[in-house]
Specification:
Chain lengths: 386, 447
């Protein structure tokens, strides 16, 4: 009798099962750990993060922050992170813009435009991203002309098979005044926009002298810039020998990864936007046109603000996916985190566990931070108590 | 007012209103054109813009890929001599066999076809109406079929456990088909002939016993028949092409569902340890890129096992891909579970079903039905993501396509293979997504 009771006691059963799971996972963990310790002892590579202070000794083909081979593995890690974040930020911004465009065109009354958008989405999301990245890199960007024959725009922007060259600003000492003015102008404009918004809500009219007020700070800013003697020069890339010097430069690998992922993700963002817009009651659009809103205005003031509530949660997920997917640029040798740290550094040091932990740790932190921040924002814009 | 009430008032003369302007044509071909392509300024502008864009994009592509293309040539140089601006499909055609089968020996490729063919043959009975125990057939397909296919792909001596399991699998498949023939000719099932004999031994479990007995006898038969057939051993390093892509992605697809279901159930469990364990695995795996998981599987995983253990790259990759796919599937399954109303749980509890009975008999069948479109979507992304294994050096279709450009005859042939495999992926993925959309529609109307 007491035996039966023990079997049918759910809380006891739950505790037993959990204890069992804990014991099993601990013993598996112990088994794996002893293997790791044995293997590392045989390889004479004791576990530890000391290696991040030792000299890396290899060059990274492109880095946003200063780097040279005499720097440490820690610096390489940082270079990889910065490059990854730069690439993903560019992709996120441009694929979102393009995606909104694609999603809106998909719902155009024009049959040809809607069908074009539909096939754009179907084509780009059904071909693996890796193939697209390699295609853009090998077939498009690597077949551009050599530096001597590069395409140029106003002889300041150059595009060739090494990358894209564009002027870099050189700030003179006097630029500090323009910078300070710019900051104060931004503050002024924010205050002005807030004021005008609340005024408009109260009275239904624009703030008096709204447009002059909007432009005055800009005029002031230009005046300060000119009066301090135009303290900003541009370093324009120039062909010297076989390559360009001066100015900024982004490698073709960056451009290829950027273009491929922007197009690939613009297709999925376009679908999300389409679904979000279609989730709005058509009565809203009819009501907008009934009170005389032109289509473009009703899209901007009526549809998108409401659709944003439906679009934002999946969009956040897509942005997180983009940050993770930017690691695919490793396939074409763009020096992002996986490429410089998980490939080159790992091959050099052989410290698999530490490096895998560090790389995965970065992606986890990035994902968690981004999703936390955006979910806070998402909570703010969702309908309350709905 | 007064006018209307006075009957003697002069009758008002009927003056018709001026007729309205003709209705804008909304019917016929002109109406259709006006409505969809040239209605208003913006509409016309869009038509012109898209049309010119299509012209700019498609004309050079069609010229390159069809009009100027070379289909028959023996080297890239020959292609360029015939048509310098056209696509050189001859290279893709020459390498097509390798794109599909990798470096698998040509004369043994029938084994791959046979293996996949048997898989289809195994799944075909699932659409037959008269057959019972379809779930059993499906589960056996998941459990036994991989051994059969794997034996066909790898080959080796006709002895050992692997050979025997493969024969047992083949026996099961044969039994299914014998039973199908018997059912459709109106006879009894194979095992029902044996049942009367076995009822004397154990009346209660006669059905099961006879089933197992038939299976056993057939297995013995097959083991002895194929004893004389020697399948040449093909090492895993030789696997490649679309074949390898399909092997990896089908492992991922098949394993993702059970892993995902258990992780999702664990996540909703009341037991804190199991709940947090599942959450940790799901969130950990989902927050890192797949390529890092793959790198981990080839660099870090070997350290976790004794170095006497012989791990090959393919199995490491398959383990990683399965875990990855499982974690993503868990979230899909969770979405399906959340859509089931709590009343279903209460009802199951009130008729006395336990946890596993509730889940497998009541909740999951309903949830899975809801989830089918999402599951197909994640299958598609799994299939596409399989191309990442080329980065860590497995010769899947992507790496095979890249390798054409370093072949001495076809040196520098980059774009054609990429376009060709894009086309293959597009056909497969687009087909699957259309199928999932049609399923979605079908399931919606039936509810």
């Amino acid at each position: 009798m007491s035996k039966n009771k023990a079997i049918y006691n759910t809380s006891l059963r739950a505790r037993t099962i959990q204890a069992f799971v804990i014991i099993i996972s601990i013993s598996i963990g112990y088994y794996l750990l002893t293997n790791v310790v044995d293997n590392l002892r045989q390889m004479e590579l004791p576990f530890g993060f000391g290696f991040i202070n030792s000299t890396a000794g290899f060059d990274v083909s492109w880095s946003l922050i200063p780097y040279d081979p005499s720097m440490s593995y820690g610096r390489v890690y940082l270079v990889g992170i910065v490059n990854t974040l730069l690439l993903s930020a560019f992709i996120i911004v441009f694929s979102t813009l393009l995606g909104f465009f694609v999603g809106i065109v998909r719902l155009s009354p024009n049959l040809l435009a809607a069908q074009f958008s539909r096939w754009y989405v179907e084509f780009f999301r059904n071909v693996p991203l890796l193939i697209q990245i390699v295609f853009w890199f090998i077939v498009v960007f690597s077949t551009l002309p050599a530096p001597r024959q590069s395409y140029s725009l106003f002889t300041t922007f150059f595009l060739n098979n090494r990358g894209f060259y564009f002027p870099a600003p050189i700030f003179q000492p006097g630029f500090i005044w323009t910078f300070i003015t710019a900051l104060s102008v931004i503050v002024c404009l924010t205050v002005l926009l807030k004021k005008s918004k609340s005024y408009r809500k109260r009275t239904g009219n624009l703030l008096p002298y709204y447009y002059p007020l909007l432009f005055a700070p800009l005029v002031f800013l230009t005046a300060v810039f000119v009066l301090t003697g135009k303290p900003l020069h541009w370093a324009i890339p120039k062909l010297t020998g076989f390559n360009f010097e001066g100015g900024f430069f982004i490698p073709t690998a960056f451009a290829a990864a950027f273009v491929a992922m922007t197009i690939y993700r613009s297709a999925s963002i376009g679908e999300t936007v389409r679904a979000g817009i279609q989730s709005i009651d058509p009565g809203q659009i009819e009501a907008a046109s009934a009170i005389g809103f032109p289509p473009a205005k009703s899209l901007w003031f009526i549809i998108i603000p409401q659709a944003a509530r439906a679009i934002l949660p999946p969009l956040i997920n897509l942005w997180l996916t983009i940050v993770k997917e930017s690691s695919l640029a490793v396939a074409i040798g763009f020096p992002e985190l996986v490429s410089v740290f998980m490939q080159t550094s790992l091959n050099q040091t052989g410290r698999a566990i530490e490096i895998v932990l560090m790389v995965m740790g970065f992606y986890m932190c990035a994902s968690l931070t981004i999703s936390f921040l955006l979910n806070q924002y998402n909570k703010r814009i969702q309908l309350q108590g709905g | 007012m007064g006018k209307l009430t006075n009957p003697k008032a002069e009758l008002l003369e009927f003056v018709p209103r001026p007729s309205r302007p003709p209705v804008v044509v909304t019917y016929g071909f002109t109406g259709w054109l006006k409505k969809h392509l040239f209605g208003g300024f913006w509409n016309t502008l869009q038509t012109i813009a898209v049309f010119s864009l299509l012209y700019l994009l498609l004309k050079p592509f069609i010229e390159w890929s069809v009009i100027d293309a070379v289909w028959v040539a023996s080297t890239r140089r020959e292609c360029l001599e015939i048509s310098p601006d056209g696509a050189c499909w001859a290279g893709v055609i020459t390498w097509f066999n390798n794109l599909i089968y990798g470096r698998y020996p040509d004369e043994l490729q029938w084994r791959i076809n046979l293996g996949f063919g048997l898989g289809l043959v195994w799944l075909m009975p699932l659409v037959l109406k008269k057959l019972k125990n379809k779930i059993g057939i499906a589960i056996m397909a998941v459990v036994l079929y991989p051994f059969l296919a794997n034996y066909l792909f790898i080959g080796g001596e006709p002895n050992g456990l692997h050979y025997i399991i493969a024969c047992v699998a083949l026996a099961y498949l044969m039994m299914i088909y014998i039973n199908i023939i018997l059912i459709y000719t109106g006879c009894q099932l194979l095992e029902q002939y044996l049942e009367p004999l076995l009822e004397r031994i154990s009346p209660k479990k006669a059905a099961l016993l006879s089933h197992v007995a038939c299976w056993f006898v057939l297995s013995l038969l097959i083991v002895s028949i194929f004893q004389g057939v020697q399948l040449q051993h093909v090492p895993i390093d030789m696997w490649g092409g679309l074949f390898l892509t399909v092997v990896i992605s089908s492992f991922a697809i098949v394993m993702a569902l059970p892993i995902g279901v258990f992780l999702a159930l664990g996540r909703r469990s009341n037991m804190p340890v199991i709940k947090w364990f599942s959450i940790a695995i799901i969130e950990l795996v989902r927050s890192v890129p797949m390529i890092t998981v793959l790198f981990m599987s080839v660099t870090m995983m070997p350290l976790f096992f004794p170095n006497t253990m012989d791990l090959n790259k393919l199995s490491q990759v398959i383990i990683a891909v399965c875990i990855f796919a499982g974690a993503y599937m868990a979230e899909t399954v969770r979405g399906g579970l959340q859509a089931i109303s709590p009343g279903q749980f209460d009802a199951a509890k009130s008729v006395g079903l336990g946890y596993w009975q509730t889940m497998f008999l009541i909740i999951l069948p309903q949830a899975l039905k809801l989830m089918i479109p999402n599951i197909v979507t994640s299958f598609i992304s799994m299939f596409k993501d399989t191309t990442l294994v080329s980065i860590i050096g497995l010769f899947d279709i992507m790496l095979m396509a890249r390798n054409i450009s370093i072949d001495k005859d076809w040196y520098g042939l980059h774009s054609e293979p990429l376009v060709a495999i894009s086309f293959i992926f597009f056909i497969v993925c687009y087909g699957m997504s259309q199928y999932s959309q049609s399923l979605e529609k079908k399931l919606k109307t039936s509810r």
